[in-house]
Every structure is written in C-alpha cells, then in structure tokens.
C-alpha cells in the first residue's frame, strides 16, 4: 500500500507543478545562460554520400573551387569528411591565428604519417629527431649565415649556366632544373657527393623527378598502388645509404667546413640518416625549381615588367655580355624589384592547403573543433584576398614595396613560408638562391615565350586538358622559350 501511495503522489497536482517548474528552470538555464551548460556546436560539415570516402571525390575534382564554394556557403570554418579524415578548413584572422599559434594545433602530428609514407621514417624516430633537425636547419640557414653559402652557390650557378647552349629553344622549367638542381645539391651536400655530372646525372634525375611528381600521392596512398613511384623511392633510399656513409667518413671537425647535410647528420646521431637525407634533397628542390620557373615566366610574359627588371640589372652591372656574372651580396641587395618578382610569384603559386592536427578541442568563431581533426589553411585563397592584395590575380611586383623586407616583415596575409614555431627554416636561403638565379639567367640571356603563360590548374577537367591529372592543385610547367646570348644587342631585339 505504501508503494501505491507514493506512486500516486507523483501524479498529484502539486508534484506536477513542481516538475513543470523544474523543467522550465532547466530550459532557461540551458538557453538563456548558455555559458553555464550549452557547448558551442561543431563546424558545419560536408559529408558527401559515400561511406568513408565522404566528399573526397567531389573535392578532388576541383579542390580550389570546392574550398571557395564551401567558404561562401558555410562561413570561415567548415569541416569536410574525406577518405576517413575530418578536414576542418580555417579562414579569417581568428582562424589563421589559431592555426599558427595555438598549442593545440600540432604540426608534427599532422605530417608524421606523410613523412613515414614518403621516406620510411617510423613514428618514434620522427618524433625523436624532427624538432632538433628543424632547429639545426633554422640555425644553419639563418640570414646571418647566408654569407657562408653565397659565393659557393653563385659559382655553381655560373658554372652550370656556362654549360648551357648559347641559344636555342627549350622548355623553361627544364632549363631552370638543369641549372638549379646540380648547383644547389653540390652546395648543400658537397661537391660530387650526389650524382650531378653528365655521366651519372640522367638516371638519378629520372628517379628523383618521378619521386617528386608522385610525392603527394605517395604521402597518402599505400606503396603497392604506386609501383613506379615506390621503385624510385627505394632506388633513392639505397643510393643515400652510400651517400651518408661517405659524408660521415669525410665529416670535418671544423664547423664552418661542414656542409648543411653534415650538420644534419651530426644532429641525427645515426637515427634514420639516409631517410632524412632524401627529405633534405626533396625539400631543397620541390619549391625552389617551380618558383624560379614561375618568376621567369611572369617576368618574360609582361614586357613592362621585363623591361623594369632589365633596367635594374643594367643599373648595377651595365649592359650584358659574354662573361659570367660574378655577383656579390651587396649587388644582389641593389636588385629589389627582381626580389619582389620572386615574392609575387610565390604569392600567386602557393599551395592549395597546408595542415596541422587538433590535439585538443579548439574553440574558433564560436565553434568547437574536436581533437583529431586535421586543420587546413589555404595559402592559395588567403593570397587572393582583395582587401589584403588588390587585384589579387594580377602579377604586381610593386605591391611588395610596402613590405619591410629589411626587417624580415612580409605583407600582411602572406603565409607561403608558414608561421609559428615551424615556419620554413630555409626561407632565407631559398629567397637568396631564387633571387640570384633569376638575375643571372636574365643577365645571360634574352628570352621570348613561344607559348602562352601556363596556368595553375583548379580542377580535374583542366588537368585532363593538359595531361596533368593529379587530384590536387596541379601546376603546369610547359612554357617553351627562345633564349639567346644578347652580345650587347639593345633590349627588345628578341621580340
């Protein structure tokens, strides 16, 4: 009887009123005082319709357009489910700041698996050595140490340029690689350590460029799906085992006599030495070659820019001639317009996305991004913000006159070299080498484009038209040029 009485008491008018008051109170606390119990929502999510694959196919067809449409529809933060991953794209000041500055946005965890796939470095070895390698590179390639490399790389560039034919018709990207690859490798690894001569360069170059061209796929997919790429990777790793042995046998005690490669080997202390050596080679070539190509292509394709660049060169060195250009550091600093051309080419041809990993939940723009998400930032679209970069699609080197490059301050919104703790450690060396090579090639030759300026591919359809079918941002290196030694012929005679 007591049980029946207590149950019936639950349905008395007084109890019902009390329950209603409690429910209303809970609702008020939840919705009128959100900080007390209501958590911000997850970002809008684009899921696609195929399990696991999600929106991967849709995004892969036209990644740049996909990102732009998603931002327009969903705002500055949105998540894409693709190939089993949650990719959360960040935009705007708050998003960019969190991407580069938050302790919960981790670079190492974002890149560990791609590094393991491309260079066979296991997680334990990567986590143990990555920070120390980064600090070594940052120190050895800092601005106040560039003088240690300047004369060497200038001489290497000069030697390689002199080996080119005095005139001819050639693919511009091939022309750049013929000079930059051996010169930079001999500078950073030591003369003759890597194959850079006529007798041994061809096979090495074939494997390296195959490795480079498939790098994005190789960083994500199992090797059995990429047979040719995997064979080139294993060929290169086998070669670097021999290169590391020779570099360590001839490693000098004096710090200033060591190559950058030997400094890295000292830092590694035997951990994944040949694997990291392959990554060092790739890092030295993967961006410098295409940016140098694009800088020359942009300059040559615009008569006014070309004339301005040549006038600057003439103002420092006089009219061009047959002798190699023995440029020094002070003279290179007197060529700011050409350096601005390099930076503008970098702005226009930066990658579609860079990544970090959320290791703890992140609150951005009133959204909670869960731990485990891959955070994505698009330099391509950030560099096309018309507020920060007026006429963003135009090649305008003069915009860089507003940057304080003497104090290492780039333009606001320029993120090509990354940011935060893991900003590109080789950025100053890269700017120096690209600036120098562009000057030396413009001084040596008069160029005339035979093809229209190639474009940056935004979709699979565009890529199929040109034969380049990567499912990422594809850059075409197909400009053909006529080049010839001017022999003091007045500017413009080649047009």
UniProtKB/TrEMBL annotation:
Q: Which Pfam families match?
A: p450
Which compartments does it reside in? Endoplasmic reticulum membrane
Q: Which UniProt keywords apply?
A: Endoplasmic reticulum, Heme, Iron, Lipid metabolism, Membrane, Metal-binding, Oxidoreductase, Steroid metabolism, Transmembrane, Transmembrane helix
Q: MF terms per GO, please? A: heme binding; iron ion binding; oxysterol 7-alpha-hydroxylase activity
Cofactor(s) demanded: heme
Q: How is this protein annotated for GO cellular component?
A: endoplasmic reticulum membrane
* UniProt binding sites for heme: 424
Main subcellular location of this protein, as a coarse class: endoplasmic reticulum
Q: Does the keyword Oxidoreductase apply?
A: yes
Q: Which residues cross the membrane?
A: 15-33
One GO process term, biological-process aspect: bile acid biosynthetic process
Tell me yes or no: is Heme among this UniProt entry's keywords: yes
Note the InterPro entries from the entry. CYP450_sterol_14alpha_dmase, Cyt_P450, Cyt_P450_CYP7A1-type, Cyt_P450_E_grp-IV, Cyt_P450_sf
| Binding annotation for substrate | 287
Q: In which pathway does it act?
A: Lipid metabolism; bile acid biosynthesis
Please report the name of this protein according to its UniProt entry: 24-hydroxycholesterol 7-alpha-hydroxylase
